[in-house]
Amino acid sequence: MKNEQAIVEALLYVSGEDGVTLEQLTEVLNMPEEHVLGVIENLKKALQNEARGLMITEVAGRYQLVTKKEMATYIERLIKAPRPATLSQAALETLAVIAYKQPVSRAEIEEVRGVKSEKALSTLMSKGLIKEVGRAEGTGRAILYGVTEAFLTHFGLKSLNELPEFSDRLDESSMEETDLFYEKFQQTVLEL
Amino acid sequence: MEYKVKIDAFEGPLDLLLHLIKKMEIDIYDIQVAEITEQYLNFIHEMKELQLDIASEYLVMAATLIEMKSRMLLPKPEPLMPDGDEVEWEEDIDPREALIQRLIEYKQYKQVAEWLKEKEERQLLFYTKPPSDLSGYEKPREIQLTGVSLYDMLAAFRHLLQKKQWDKPLHTKIQRQEIPIGERMNDILKQLKGKREPIPFDDLFLYPNRTHIVVTFLALLELMKKRAVTCVQHRNFEQILVYSADERFGEV
Fold it and tell me: Where along chain B do the CATH 1.10.10.580 domains lie?
């Protein structure tokens, strides 16, 4: 049993960010799937030990070996660089619309957001988070967009099912940031 | 003194409207059109005073709000039939309906965007590494040709041609390559010399170069004319065999 954990750990190390699927592990270990799942579970438990810096995550249907989030500060000290830039609000909104409405055209996205979304789309395309999935019927044959597997990896999602469901009850918490801005804005106006 | 305030805090007119609705503490399902229009226009005027560029989308929304407001102010026409027959009037449809729907939909996507932002920030704390380079261990794989259509092949071919076009230098000098026929004739004889066996015709054409091929062919014809070599083909389309005809013609 210990031995198999070591094998899984080594396979996860070698495959890095590509990760390994359950099928691949089953094939290499030549064991039934339930058994492999058990080995993964045990390895996960073993890694929970505070003396270990790595852990197993499951992203886009693949197992990955990643550093624990407590290690982030030390890693950043080592590479002497800040964290990579996150996506802009416009890009995140555009991505949210695509994830729920795909395949979706630019016009439909702009209809929902009420603003031009060309720039956000090209950013998302260049980051490989969305791709062209087809063309709309009818005049113009507009490009239809959909999210990629890199989308799941970027946000650490197992699948699209993990996205929150739309509820009728609206949550107000997301507006706080804009309120802060608005207060400052009004102050500025008053000072004029 | 000019104040520069970033309008970036709002992602567009819908975002601004949602903010105003919250600020005014009104129910999104029961928007007071007159009031919200006023607030919205105030904001636009403030932006103008601050000499901010106002994106056209904000102005379109302003126009929509004003139109909605005026429509709601218009008196509803009296029913034409005084007997009180139930007649459905178009005006009974709340003009706010479409805007409310858009706002609610937008708000939901905004919440998902927020959720994604949290996920993204969390994910950035996990570091991973590129997969180890195992290419040295890989066995040559058979090329899978299933699921490849004629159009895929055509596209690949066009891509290849385009790549070749790009690889071409912008300026080239064409140099004439001169191979004297006499030299090739001697080469062919050297190849044949001391061999009892004939050599296949194809073996004479070593380089896929047009000049070389033409000169070799002419040299062969010349050698045949001089009876230095004999060419034999046993059957149609069979390989032509080149025999050295006579030791006497060793040199030309």
Answer: 181-249
